[in-house]
Structure prediction request, 2031 residues.
Amino acid sequence: MKIGVDYYPEHWGEDYWKEDVAAMSRAGVQIVRIGEFAWGMMEPEEGKFDFQWLDKIVSMFTEAGIEIVLCTPTCTPPQWMFEKYPEIIQVGTDGKRVPIGIRGHRCMNSPLFRDKVKTMIQKLVHHFKDNENIAAWQIDNELEANFCCCPVCAEKFREYVKKKYKTIEKVNEAYGNDVWSGRYTSFSQINPPFGTHQTWLNPSYMLDFNRFASESTVEYLNFQAGLIREIVPQMKLTTNNWLPENIPDFYKLFENMDFVSYDNYPTTVIPEDPEELYSHAFHLDLMRGIKRKNFWIMEELSGSLGSWMPMTATPEPGMIKGYALQAAAHGADAVLHFRWRTAKSGAEMFWHGLIDQSNIPGRRFEEFCSLTGTLKENPVPEETEIHNQAAILYSTESEYAFKIQPQVEGMHYFTQLKAYHDAFTANGVGVDMIDANSDFSGYRIVVAPALFLADEELAGRAEEFVRKGGHFVLTNRSGVKDENNQCVCRALPGIFADLAGVYVTEYDPVGLKKQRIRIQKDSWKQGSILCVSAEDKDTAFARDELCCSLWCDILGIETADVLAVYGENFYENAPAVTRNHFGQGECYYVGTVLNRRGMISLIGEIVRVAGAEHIMGLPLGVEYTVRESEKERIHFLFNNTNRKKKMELRRVNAYGMGEPVKYELEPFEMQIERQML
Amino acid sequence: MKIGVDYYPEHWGEDYWKEDVAAMSRAGVQIVRIGEFAWGMMEPEEGKFDFQWLDKIVSMFTEAGIEIVLCTPTCTPPQWMFEKYPEIIQVGTDGKRVPIGIRGHRCMNSPLFRDKVKTMIQKLVHHFKDNENIAAWQIDNELEANFCCCPVCAEKFREYVKKKYKTIEKVNEAYGNDVWSGRYTSFSQINPPFGTHQTWLNPSYMLDFNRFASESTVEYLNFQAGLIREIVPQMKLTTNNWLPENIPDFYKLFENMDFVSYDNYPTTVIPEDPEELYSHAFHLDLMRGIKRKNFWIMEELSGSLGSWMPMTATPEPGMIKGYALQAAAHGADAVLHFRWRTAKSGAEMFWHGLIDQSNIPGRRFEEFCSLTGTLKENPVPEETEIHNQAAILYSTESEYAFKIQPQVEGMHYFTQLKAYHDAFTANGVGVDMIDANSDFSGYRIVVAPALFLADEELAGRAEEFVRKGGHFVLTNRSGVKDENNQCVCRALPGIFADLAGVYVTEYDPVGLKKQRIRIQKDSWKQGSILCVSAEDKDTAFARDELCCSLWCDILGIETADVLAVYGENFYENAPAVTRNHFGQGECYYVGTVLNRRGMISLIGEIVRVAGAEHIMGLPLGVEYTVRESEKERIHFLFNNTNRKKKMELRRVNAYGMGEPVKYELEPFEMQIERQML
Amino acid sequence: MKIGVDYYPEHWGEDYWKEDVAAMSRAGVQIVRIGEFAWGMMEPEEGKFDFQWLDKIVSMFTEAGIEIVLCTPTCTPPQWMFEKYPEIIQVGTDGKRVPIGIRGHRCMNSPLFRDKVKTMIQKLVHHFKDNENIAAWQIDNELEANFCCCPVCAEKFREYVKKKYKTIEKVNEAYGNDVWSGRYTSFSQINPPFGTHQTWLNPSYMLDFNRFASESTVEYLNFQAGLIREIVPQMKLTTNNWLPENIPDFYKLFENMDFVSYDNYPTTVIPEDPEELYSHAFHLDLMRGIKRKNFWIMEELSGSLGSWMPMTATPEPGMIKGYALQAAAHGADAVLHFRWRTAKSGAEMFWHGLIDQSNIPGRRFEEFCSLTGTLKENPVPEETEIHNQAAILYSTESEYAFKIQPQVEGMHYFTQLKAYHDAFTANGVGVDMIDANSDFSGYRIVVAPALFLADEELAGRAEEFVRKGGHFVLTNRSGVKDENNQCVCRALPGIFADLAGVYVTEYDPVGLKKQRIRIQKDSWKQGSILCVSAEDKDTAFARDELCCSLWCDILGIETADVLAVYGENFYENAPAVTRNHFGQGECYYVGTVLNRRGMISLIGEIVRVAGAEHIMGLPLGVEYTVRESEKERIHFLFNNTNRKKKMELRRVNAYGMGEPVKYELEPFEMQIERQML
Prediction:
């Protein structure tokens, strides 16, 4: 596992370079990323390329033995290009070209832009094709789904629809266009989603536009990848991922990449409300799950964030080192801190790096050096990987469909995912976040929160999984939509009804008001007690009663057992949470949204029933993970809070309960234990 | 009185139709509304009309003995029309065509659109002219004032202004254009109100634009009515009314219609704050008052609402039936539930019908069946009508003027109306909401809340009414504006000053902060006690002290008696509420905005003094109304809350106080008592 | 010192004029302002000028001995001009012409508009050039920096940049354009700042655009001044200043004016939170500081404000008189109340004047008459001026830079200035608000809050000032930026480091959360006690503990003494406030933002150490100021609150502590004491 930094030689005079490279060496930097915004320096005039400056700094890093991630600079076309070819600029839903000056405002579908990209990449890659110090290429930067409404995209979207449905009549069917006289008589009537009131637009059409926007981005990425591989076929390729407003399909995005990268900026302000979810591991596990293998952090928190927003608090002591090690504990093979030194000009000058503009190393830099020191003593080999018994399914199309049609105030797709992730973590169970469309047969427990849009194939896989002994968790808002984002015409959870052994007789979107709920099974109640560590016994969290909110499915029972019932409203005593024995396994149905206390208890119960290996006694905010290879197992115990934590942990698995072991962790401290196999 | 549903045959395959019609028959459906969004199905290509599908379903309903409301589908022009004739699309205040895809975005003034409408309506009405099962035609859907800024409307508005004022000099006078160099030298300088900061625009001009927008809609409606009546002169016509942002003049809108229809969606979440007004009867009485006769509910709450907004809670048990009966109790002769089955596609799929997409009847549907059963046992004949002794005046132009110039934070025209309506209801007095421009001589008590803009004619009618013994209530913000929306240059309440016997020496827009007030008359205090039922004695509401907020007129007395004075500020002890003996009657002036407790007490006092018939002992939220014909009187007692209510009621009228009678009502229960005459 | 009113003869028929002028005479009005929105009346058609109506009213005032401020009406071009020459209309950041109908929407750079202005002014001034009753001309109205994005301004901005930097390469350097490929290759690529997300734009470029917008306005003002002075070279010129969103550089704006005018609208609602700053004197002192001499109030609060916003509460008794006298106490030589009578038409009809539309004089008018009476008895001669020992620096460019890049939630440049102003006022020390770019060598104490952007010259002046014995106060966010709005590459406070004797090792943008802080010096603690009057001892304010928020600089000490340290976080015990002995003086560095209690205590300590004259025993909200000439000294004691205040005051100066004197002030009462010299 490597530690590195993001560096912008083009922001600083050459005078800085020599000392910067030397300082990086001393600090233990093993890898740098450069070039992702430097098109203006690489092609200062149309057709005139200048890589001399880049040669210099690349040589300096090469001599210093620091590996390089080189980037295609296509996120920021130069000003002359915007001036000469305004048609390469994205068009917003207001029908106007996005104002330039900021970054990322190019239309990825523009043929003219693609031409310019092609020339640039061919020149650039060719120039550096023989440099053996280049560890990987990063393509573009923080790609969003290309939600562009320009004439090129409009036409391309029409072609997308035509190709998918062949005839306009099929489009009308798929979109249910007989509502509100929405029937097209010609493909020319299909346009991008203009206007600010997008929730008034047809949700089936909107889902297709989201798919198209995502595919445009995937195609754009692969277009760049192809150009690079033509010249350096063996080169590792990646792009740095994030969670933008318009999320592309991560699994398709990285299908053709060598590894996933992620830009990791955990919050620097610890929430005080114990109900507020607080674990950055969710994102790390989501990233690892994309290709189901180790990944990189291409940008990592290094200081206060700000610039287009007011600044956040500075990272507390321990955060910079701790969050980097947490990434390693969840599968990162490289962590590059953003950035070596804070910018002195441009719109990003208050997004702080490891060193401030003064160039005087301070507390944050020292912590970074301590990080590299720790990893030198305690290396985390790339061949160590993570193997978990539990998984949570992520469905890109459910995410789109939820965004297109908000279900009830306060309910978001990602929040549902995070709540389940949090509950596994609290129970000392490592969990993978994986594509709902992928094979999940190897797990003991699989949770599918709010699988809003799903197809028979997925339902079949779920049934097969349970039939063979798996433990599957379904929730409210599952099986609601078909592949066209139309509502299914059967009792919910629709295609999952047999598996769940329940049907939704009616639902109540109760919103933010808390609702009483009553547990029916003692085991779950015990689980609820077990999962609370001694440390947390006296906290507000522990005293909190189990309750629910947002959504209440009122369940009818076919074959399932009732685990919990509602405690108020006209559906008092109606089933809220159930368990259905199906084949050799169990399918849970969670008809409501439990509070944190309830969620942790429920997952505790499920883990117990499934016989999954877990750690007992973890205080809230302490995370346990394992990386292993054939040779060794590395145990990570991380205090993700700003309070000292004491605990007595016991491992529980098929062989029974282990002996208790005491631990003490300072705020954000990571404890690493190696075990040889 | 009939019960029906809204139905969209075009959303469902023909396979559904037969069973749907049969199920409706079984459920007691007497009438359906169809067709209001189906232009795309009726004219799938320009000039090609297809009514075959409609014939089929119309026949099925006819055979089943279910009456039909057919609609002109002009709210949703087909996509081919938008593509070929973009000039029919409304233009917003940003000067741009509204993005299509949603509904209702046609410019009602567009000559081209009118042509298309004409052809469609002539074909459609001609086609069905001989069907005797058609009970009425609904024209278009949920009409707003046509607030369109397209070139056609701009020119038409100029003509409107020219016709009204003849010369540009008269326009300048009427608008007071010498302010800020607003003087026009040519009609061509008059434009629609572009821009987002409309409160910066001249309020006199803005009022005219609102009038013009309303008249455009009225003219459009009558244009359609004319086309229909040419073919079927005896046919009943209506349009379904609502309360949009840009409200047309209801009285002009329905002048030429046979009856009023309303889309009735009471809230499903009962407010907890006893100060929050909560009675849907206000809207029902407003609708009945438009033509001063019975009306229809064309769309009625059937489930959770959502789609472009997050979903609301589902209706509590009793609401679906109770709200429908409440409509009957306030004069509805038909209630059509929106909709038979929830949509499976399109943007409205979470605006729930009686049956969900699964087509499995559930709790809501059962309640609907219980409703039809109850009405079969207990029919409410159309000839029974409502006769009240009290009325509240609604002034379209005051509503416009208040919207154009917000007076103080928290003060809205409709809230003022509702507060008085609520106070009558709480005192067991039925109340009509009527046009301020109509004759109100038949009532005992007339309240004119916030008659911001008023003319001499209205003031004369009010004086005549009081002179002959009427009880008239004026409030703050009355008589402020002349017909040009300029401020009157005399002491407020201006034209009402003689009648009120007071003048406003100064006012204080105090906003949301509560102010103390002191009652001067014992009678009012007693009223305050009397109006609280035993049931409510221990509630927060009953303990609440009488106070005021928002606005304080500091009154000078000419001839009036002081009923209440302010209890703080530099105008402590200045008159706040007065009563002026005038001719044979009384005129009250309410210089401030009382809290709910105060408002109910005050109206109690006024009812007592006026000797109006009323019911004592009603708990808050229980409503009493009467429908009567020559043959019978039907008494309705409705629990508009989600708590069980016990009460002991006594009728008070000219003959004295009746004997106490005990009642008990379940949540949302309606008790109906028939009395033969 | 004169009292006057703003009057709009063009809004009222000539019938009103005679009586209005007579009533003004009776009321003691000495001066009126007229004409600033009357272009439409002065040039009713293009090229046809009409000053007859103006002649009449001017004659009437002249005969009545009432002086006149005449205005150029260029804020509101007539409608025919907008129609014929739409290119004179401003363009917003959305690239569209601003919707007209409101006022102030002309592009000050438009050559065509300038032509029209030129003709109008030449005609108008020539017409009145011999009237000796005209006291001054007001140019235009409430000028903002001309933030226009029209093609003319775009081109002019390009020229501005070209002139400043000569080559495009210098522009790229100054803007740091190598970030995000922002490098220009041609001046034609420079555009106005389009788009809504302006914080994403390059801050160096944004600062230049702000400078350009300000200079455009200054140039426009001087263009008008030149036209007037060509005809009447001796005439006094001014423009009425305010605090708009886009503030021009006040010092350059008024460089060429004879005196500053200000539109003074203090709040009518007294805040309840003692932490909320509440003194309108800040604005008055800011205005006096622009030219460092007496100024005028051209518009003064006369009633409830409203129209484009809901109305505010009406002024409490005493406010109208008290605020006018407060202006005098801070250097106003004229106060003109806005307006004589409230408008009856146009968008401003709820922005209340002294008399309401009814034309019946009321409480507010009586208070105005009492004001003129008081000043007749107790004249405040124009030759009396204010001489203070303390000053606060205002930096236009720091204000721009703070606005361009918000630093942390809740932190605003003006709030910082106000907090220091408040602290001096509470300590009974008069304070001047002056240009940071001006000479401040005459003061004992100079505070420079948040001198975000500063240059060596200013740092040099500060050092010189302290070296000679001055007391200088620096705060966090000082010396952060160079003149190009790039971050300086040295430890903060950068150019002030030597003077402060500290350096910022790191900072923590803590935001709104309160932080503990501990005082190290007893003297400061005492100051903290002394500054609280007996009156305030029991208030929440007095019990409040000293704390800080928003921003925490963690200081390293070079030569300074530590006055206070942080009381929590990882930098507990790190220096927060320091004092550095430098030459003969002291430089304080305040690394955080103290709460009101802390700020007052700190300034108390600084005043004590500096030996500045001050008044002990002032209750919060009571303000003490002095105007003096060679002949006399006038002491003003003003109760800026709505509570009666009792106090015992002692003067402290070089001669020691004076005898205690008791005072009692009614709400908003001004006590004036004359002292002959």
Chain C has three domains: 2-145+217-377, 390-612, 622-676.
